[in-house]
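Allow me, if you will, to draw on your knowledge of protein folds for a short while. A protein sequence and the structure tokens that stand for its backbone fold form the material at issue. I would ask you to consider whether the tokens describe a fold that such a sequence might reasonably adopt. Thank you for your consideration; the sequence and its tokens are set out here:
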Amino acid sequence: MKNWTIKEDLQLVAWFDFVGTVHLSRDLGRSDQSIKDRAKKLKETGAWDDLKAFKKAEFKHLQAYYEKVGNKSASEEIQMLHPFSPEHGMADEGDEA
């Protein structure tokens, strides 16, 4: 059994609700059941919420960076592509992009 990496956990948290286990299974090279089990473990331990908060903060900081350096196209791109962008409905109520 292969250990999960932080990179895989972040990808799981970022995309699990959007693409489900079939796509993640292909992308991560893991079985559907392995993905479900990992998601369950992360949620039970509270790590899911920690990783979700990390991805939300990442989005906010990237957005602020692109706006500050005047890269409007990158700012708009991150808004469209980042899984925790308000565009994808992953921001909690009260969150500001």
Q: What stands out?
A: Helices lie at 6-28, 32-45, 47-68, 72-81. DSSP finds four helices and no strands in the chain.
